[in-house]
Fold these 4 entries.
Entry 1:
Amino acid sequence: MAWFYLLAAGLAEIGWAVGLKFTNGFTKPLPTALTVGSMVVSLFLLGLALKSLPLGTAYAIWTGIGTVGTVILGIFLFAESADAMRLACIALIVAGIVGLKLVTP
């Protein structure tokens, strides 16, 4: 169950990271409330995952999921660059996430 919590926490992290873009510096109430709510959910789920997963592994995977998801949504929602080098770097992060999962019981 810890891995499910960690995945959900990472997805919620994507939500708050992307949500920050829509808050307009925390001047828009609804996007701000949704972003803060996503932050709370993300940290709560990370805390649940940390009950049985190693800190370093869980934190690295949590931030990795958030990073990869945020970059992908940035490409699709905000027309950010999708050049080969950027995608190769994202692939390295994904490889690291997979590697940490494989070596963690």
Entry 2:
Amino acid sequence: MISPTAPKPRSTVHIRVNYADVDRMGLLHHSVYLKYMERSREEFIRRRNGAYAAMEDAGVLIVVVEANLRYKRPARFDDVLAITLELYEVGAASLRIAYEFLRVGEEQPIATATTRHALVSREGRVLRLTDEIRELLTRDEAVTRDGELG
């Protein structure tokens, strides 16, 4: 568990809304937010000198077991979104992550979300977080580039 007084590991990525991700109304389709959340989790791990692939190769899968999204305002084609991910709870075998979606240059969120993840083996057995994975998840960003993800 992360101490309530400790700074929470966080990361912000920028993603430009592309044409393939909008609906006929020109709005970012509601399902794409989940895809953007996945991309922000991948970048969170990468910026801590980790890789999902390496964990999966070692037989550790981080699966989503719950997702909650609250849509507040629409995003549109060509908007650049700043997605801030905050790891706010690390349990014995699970993680909880919060997300905030902002249109770059604005202060009001367009969406907020949370996910809960379990660590499991390829066979679906629950795994406890190793000290190595816990340290990876809670370390400071090694790469501070906050560039736009295509």
Entry 3:
Amino acid sequence: MTKLAIFDLDGTLLNTIEDLAEACNHALEMCGFPVRELEEYNTLVGRGIYNLFKGALPPSARSEDMIMKMKGYFLPFYDMHKSDRTRPYDGIYGMLDTLSYAGIKLAVASNKYQDGTEKLVGKYFGKYRFEKVIGQRDGHPIKPDPMIVMEAMEAAGIGNRDEVVYCGDSDVDMQTGINSGVTTIGVLWGFRTREELQAYSPWAIADSPEQLAGLILDR
């Protein structure tokens, strides 16, 4: 029986790809490099901003200094524009309503930097109670390290991994579920493909938020 549902943010609860791409392209331009196509960001995002910058930069420019320079341009721009085109996926509010009414505890575990994660969750999902909202923090491991799931479980007062479901749209999310030893569900409305998710043999793959709610409740 599920007592806690943990969600990835980008590509799972929110469609953030256009705002992320615009901010990263702004940083690339400011650093004197070519911008990337929107479609490229589907595979560049999901591993934290440092890996985003590393992947977006030309191979010859992927130094620590340049990554930090990218960060300096990206963060203030993204903070101003992070909600320009970002929206919850259709059906997400209904899914969260269904789970909340059923007494399922909720949490967010993202590789987006902590401040951005908190602000977006607060803006779009402020009416829901999340036991923990966790993003990328300096000095802490990011997904697929299982620590982020363990933190959410501790905050929710749940010690039994059989009572936890982790939901996400990427290979990183599927591996996070495996590493955490919790039930993992892939979602298909995000940034990655069914084939990518299936390669990790998740417990289930949901085609819609409505189906995801049913899977979580019926487990």
Entry 4:
Amino acid sequence: MTGNPANPLPNGVRAIAALFALCAVYLAIAGGVMLLRPGTVSMSAGAPLLFGLELAGPYMFLLVAVAGGGVVWGLVKLNNIVRHVAMLIAITGIVMLVPSVSAATVIAQPKALAFGGLGIIVRVIVAWYLSRGEVADAFCRSA
């Protein structure tokens, strides 16, 4: 994908870029539908990814989709700053999910606990993988 055979894109980075791309495409489609056909898609459709920013309307969906696309592009190009941005996004997502998981635990809602826990697990894996030494070296070698 990078076109540089001396510094190939690690498979984990490719998977994380695909995850960011899926989220960006989802938000772009939801935001576009909200603009074209108001009332068709609820603003709460973006709640798992926007953590309250969905109340700003469809333009926030599109803005976050563009930011996600930028992260995808930067990860594919092995940009070290974007690696740090992706880790920051993942860590912020972990912090934002902790209250909902705590509430689901206290109220004993297994479905909410499972989805919140899975969200935390995926974000921890993303942050952990991008912070590994060999992955950081791959980003530094591309500079």
